[in-house]
């Protein structure tokens, strides 16, 4: 919510700076100001994207190493899950033994843990995209900024 309000305000501030830079000084100075603002905006945006991707990648790796525990207890599974499976057409089917119920529960817990790890791997790949795509753009523009500063100094 707060971020969605800050983005338009940041864009408005950039537009005001560009207009103020264009009006002040000579025509060449205004173009130079616009170029500098553009480079800084690109650097800021790509840096934020890279940082966000890095944080998301770290979180995905943490989920792969230590997935969240399964939320349903064995007692709840036995009470609610099996009773629903046993009723078919209003009749109760043959009762499962305690060992069979426990095996089904353990298999369900293992399957859920594996599902969480697969989701974390998928999230990691997506997060690496948020690093790999904007990082070269950031490096290109940071080099361009250093060249402009060296030429201007």
TrEMBL record:
The chain crosses the membrane at residues 6-25, 37-61, 124-141. Keywords: Membrane, Transmembrane, Transmembrane helix. This is DUF5671 domain-containing protein. It comes from Anoxynatronum sibiricum.
